[in-house]
Amino acid sequence: MSRALIIVDVQNDFCEGGSLAVQGGAAVAGAISDYVDAHHNEFDHIVATQDWHIDPGEHFSEAPDFKDSWPPHCVAGTHGAELHPDLDTEYIQAYFQKGQYSAAYSGFEGLLAPEDAVPTGERQPGALPGSGDADRFAPDEDAIGLDDWLQSHDVEDVVVVGIATDYCVMATALDAVQAGYSVTVLRSLTAGIAEDLEEAVADMELGGVDVA
After folding, report:
1. Which of 13, 98, 147, 175 is catalytic?
2. What is d(CA 170, CA 192) in angstroms, rounded to the nearest whole number?
3. How far is residue 206 from each of residues 167, 169, 191, measured CA to CA in Å?
């Protein structure tokens, strides 16, 4: 049995100073890095997801309701879509980008990013261009999804961390359970939008997630 760590959406726009900042996001980026530095040998694989919007339609709004519509964020190829500089990427093997043309919360909606379109190296904020046409940022036609990638690496047990606890972390964790994985969320390595995250925690636990 292989074990994987899934790092969800630790991006500039979801951290302090970003267009859709989550309080504590930057601190979580650093805490995840410290955790990975200390525990990477406990995982066979480490992957990350990115919100990666090209033209997500009604997901973006000038008058967002902050439930189904949001201010523009994580636009493909921009600084806001890059991984936060405090996130250590040294051990990340693959990146899965989601939400190109519609809303997407779960990492299991993501597609494997081309190797030349993701940041590499230790504590790098990303090496993505800041502008260009949509095709430049679209996934490859034959890009595989997160579930297929995990299955191809014989992963059965996943640990989920990242941003935001009550949205993309929860969606990723619940989809992982539905896909047949044993799932743990490390709550201290997440940051949430809501002040009270007990409902999100309860929903995850009800869905079969171990929230530690």
Report:
1. 98
2. 10
3. 16, 15, 20
- 74 an active-site residue? no
For 123-144, how does the pLDDT look when each residue is reduced to its tens digit (9 = 90+)? 333 333 334 445 566 666 678 9
| Annotation marks residue 15 as catalytic | no
∠ CA 19-22-24, rounded to 5°: 130
Instruction: Examine residue 143 and say whether the peptide bond preceding it is cis (omega within 30 degrees of 0).
Output: no
Catalytic residue among 51, 147, 168, 175: 168
The architecture that CATH gives domain 2-211 is: 3-Layer(aba) Sandwich (3.40)
198 has pLDDT over 90 = yes
* pLDDT tier, 122 (very low <50, low <70, confident <90, very high otherwise): very low
